[in-house]
Recover the amino acids of this structure.
């Protein structure tokens, strides 16, 4: 393992419980030019905002790598509540408006009784009070604010229940950048929070990241050419090189990773017999603005999204993309401005 990767591994284990306290003399120069240490030029931060939540070390880590793992952030009690609610949704005991329940493509056309064993993920749970609690947890928002600032919107929600791979490798999630899905900017004011709902490692398909790739640009995405099939809307980076230096994020229940929407990431097969669960939310500053993706590499996914939305809502007219996002976005802190 080279030094850079070893550094990443070390940082990954730094949690909020073990966070070293930041000496005041280090913290102050970050908050503005009028510092007493103005002669030594203050560090330039682009991806994080001035805050008293992240240690200098954590802040630098996110700036360099595009992600930050906070150990043990979400309680076992809360995770149990999310599990229970997920189970109720899968068994169709509740059906919150707007929710999308998705099966793995390998079993999409089979006729199974509703249960958590046939659902690979639910998304858009903004109207499910119990699951949406995740997006409003103060311990999560405290960190989110370091990236988005004080006006925070929950733009997209998911609970992923990665099934045991059937042998077709469809349980993989190809390497991608989440920004491919988002018609709003600036990207630096968007962040994903992703919480492990159990121990997750390479055996059950952990997140895999390419550190530092958030400093690059949005790459063209499309369906990977996988023999066993690919799940709907699971686009991957087209020129992904399997030899790039990847980091597998081994996480414990409650650990939460915050990552930048340009960070290249994916997840591997689930080689265990169980399901691998994680809950996530993409947040954005409500100061962000919508952009047109016409003529860009994002046009393909947005056309798919429009098509599915029109079919689901049974519309017979066209629909504006930003209205789809306006409709599912929810303010979780501060005020709603542009989004
Ligand atoms: C949206 C933006 C997200 C941004 C988030 C940031 C990063 C996100 C990265 C991702 O997670 S990418 C994946 C985002 N995924 C989605 O948005 C999920 C979209 N899924 C759906 O909308 C529905 O699950 C789907 C339309 C695929 C199926 O809906 P239903 O279960 O209501 O439909 P139905 O059972 O009637 O099936 C409709 C068709 O879809 C097919 N199908 C079902 N599940 C599938 C699957 N998993 N993959 C491929 N096709 C699938 C099914 O076989 C059938 O095909 P046919 O028309 O040929 O009969
Ligand atoms: N040949 C490939 N082409 C494109 N993406 C790949 C390829 N191999 C792996 N990936 C992607 O890399 C990420 C992690 O895969 P990883 O290698 O950890 O899992 P796996 O191949 O399913 O299992 P393992 O390598 O542990 O046996 C996933 O996003 C996966 O889709
Ligand atoms: O949980 C996973 O497997 C990865 C999910 C992911 O990257 C996504 O949905 O954007
Ligand atoms: Fe993703
Ligand atoms: Mg592999």
């Amino acid at each position: 393992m080279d030094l850079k990767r070893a550094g990443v591994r070390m940082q990954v284990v730094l949690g909020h419980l073990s966070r070293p306290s930041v000496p005041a003399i280090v913290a102050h120069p970050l908050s503005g030019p009028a510092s007493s240490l103005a002669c030594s030029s203050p560090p330039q931060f682009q991806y994080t905002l001035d805050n008293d939540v992240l240690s200098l070390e954590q802040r630098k880590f996110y700036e360099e790598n595009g992600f930050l793992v906070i150990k043990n952030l979400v309680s076992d009690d809360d995770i149990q509540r999310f599990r229970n609610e997920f189970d109720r949704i899968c068994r169709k005991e509740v059906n919150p408006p707007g929710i999308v329940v998705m099966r793995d493509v390998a079993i999409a056309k089979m006729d199974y009784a509703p249960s958590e064993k046939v659902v690979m993920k639910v998304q858009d749970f903004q109207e499910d009070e119990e699951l949406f609690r995740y997006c409003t947890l103060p311990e999560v928002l405290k960190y989110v604010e370091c990236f988005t600032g004080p006006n925070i919107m929950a733009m997209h929600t998911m609970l992923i229940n990665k099934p045991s791979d059937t042998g077709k490798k469809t349980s993989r999630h190809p390497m991608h950048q989440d920004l491919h899905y988002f018609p709003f900017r600036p990207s630096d004011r968007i962040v994903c929070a992703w919480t492990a709902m159990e121990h997750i490692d390479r055996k059950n398909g952990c997140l895999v990241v390419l550190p530092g790739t958030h400093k690059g640009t949005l790459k063209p995405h499309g369906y990977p050419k996988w023999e066993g099939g690919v799940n709907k809307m699971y686009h991957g980076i087209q020129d992904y090189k399997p030899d790039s230096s990847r980091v597998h994020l081994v996480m414990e229940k409650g650990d939460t990773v915050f990552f930048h929407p340009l960070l290249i990431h994916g997840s591997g097969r689930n080689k265990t017999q169980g399901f691998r669960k994680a809950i996530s939310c993409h947040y954005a500053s409500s100061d962000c603005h919508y952009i047109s993706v016409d003529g860009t590499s994002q046009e393909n996914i947005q056309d798919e999204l429009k098509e599915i939305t029109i079919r689901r809502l049974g519309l017979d007219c066209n629909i504006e993309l930003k209205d789809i996002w306006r409709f599912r976005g929810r303010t979780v802190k501060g005020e709603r401005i542009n989004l």
Remarks:
- The pocket of adenosine-5'-triphosphate (ligand 2) is lined by residues 172-175, 202, 208, 224, 240, 242, 266-269 (CB under 6 Å).
- The chain has eight helices and 16 strands.
